[in-house]
Each structure stands twice: as C-alpha cells, then as structure tokens.
C-alpha cells in the first residue's frame, strides 16, 4: 500500500523511489506517452531508469518531482504529475504531467494538474508556474488553456529538439506573503 501526500477525489499522489522501476517502465515504456517528450519518440530501458533517478534526485534535493499518481479505487498507476524547478527563477516551477494511454480522456490530467497547481501556490508559495507541450500535442494545449495558463512564447526544448509553446500562470493570491 502506497502512502499518498495529496489526494483528490480519484487520485493519490505518491513519491518515486528506487523500487519503482516497474511503474516507471509502465509509464515511460509506452510509446504513446513518450512520443511527445523525446526526439526518438520512445525511451530505452536505460533512459527510463535515468528518468526515475532524476525524479528521485529532484525529491531529495528540492522536495519536488513529477510525482507518480495512482487511481485511489484500484491503486493502479495513472502516470505522473508534478513540478520541477524552472530555470533559476526563485519560487517558479514548471508543471508537467504524463498519463498512461488507458487514462486519457477521462479528466485525470485536469484533476491532477489542479492538485499540483494548488500545492505549488499554497504549500510551496510559488509565484509563477510555467508549462509547455510538444507543438503537435493539441490535448495538452487545450488542457493548459483550460487550467488558465497564458501563452507567452516558444522555448527550445532540448529532449525533442523543437521549439515548444510556453505558458505561464501567476499566483494572484500571493499565499504566504
């Protein structure tokens, strides 16, 4: 049984650990998931292990990661959703989410992203959140706009070798300030 530090109606947010290679492989081993996040369109086993280790390191160093998210009713891995530091801007983070294909189109990305945004502004006192998506990923574009992100330009994304649309959300409430 996993521990969840955030819960929504249907989702539990946990933390990646070294024993999660199987879960990481379920998620980042799906070409439908990785086709928009790397130049080759799929991760090798080594790249999956490296991605898992990166998330674990992000938690150890910064207490944030693209956390694994699970369906509360089944304890099945949905994917990941969370934040990472954005460049060198203090109190600014990048929001990201990757869902397994079987969970697409069911509102899980919206539910998870709202929880990660709330956590970022209320718990971490973030001033800004950034998010981007592959230029061909229209579902992510639609979701970011629905969440209230504003388009601010394009940014070169090294893993795909492309310029990705970039969005921003400012904490209008200044929690904790």
List key phrases describing it:
single chain, 177 residues, alpha+beta, 5 helices, 31% helix, Acyl_CoA_acyltransferase, N-acetyltransferase, GNAT family N-acetyltransferase
Q: How confident overall, as mean pLDDT?
A: 94
The assigned structural class equals alpha+beta
- The 3D shape can be described as globular
Biggest beta sheet attributes = 8 strands, mixed
Q: Sketch the topology as an H/E string, one letter per element.
A: EEHHHEEEHEHEE
Percent of residues in helices: 25-40%
Give the total of beta strands. 8
Q: Using only CA atoms, what is the Rg?
A: 15 Å
Given the structure, what is the number of helices? Answer: 5
Distance between the termini: 37 Å
Residues in β-strands, percent: 25-35%
Q: Which residues sit in consecutive blocks of at least 5 with pLDDT less than 50?
A: none
Strand order of the largest sheet: 1-2-3-4-5-6-8-7
């Amino acid at each position: 049984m996993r521990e969840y530090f955030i819960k929504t109606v249907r989702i539990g947010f946990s933390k990646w650990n070294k024993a999660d290679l199987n879960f990481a492989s379920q998620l980042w081993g799906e070409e439908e998931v990785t086709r928009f996040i790397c130049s080759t369109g799929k991760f090798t086993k080594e790249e999956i292990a490296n991605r898992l280790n990166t998330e674990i390191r992000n938690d150890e160093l910064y207490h944030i990661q693209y956390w694994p998210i699970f369906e509360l009713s089944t304890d099945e891995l949905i994917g990941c959703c969370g934040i990472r530091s954005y460049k060198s801007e203090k109190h600014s983070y990048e929001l990201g989410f990757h869902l397994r294909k079987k969970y697409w189109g069911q509102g899980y990305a919206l539910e998870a992203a709202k929880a990660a945004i709330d956590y970022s502004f209320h718990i971490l006192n973030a001033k800004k959140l950034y998010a981007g998506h592959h230029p061909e990923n229209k579902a992510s574009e639609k979701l970011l706009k629905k969440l209230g992100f504003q388009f601010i330009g394009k940014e070169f994304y090294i893993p795909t070798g492309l310029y990705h649309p970039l969005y921003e959300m400012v904490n209008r409430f200044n929690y904790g300030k």
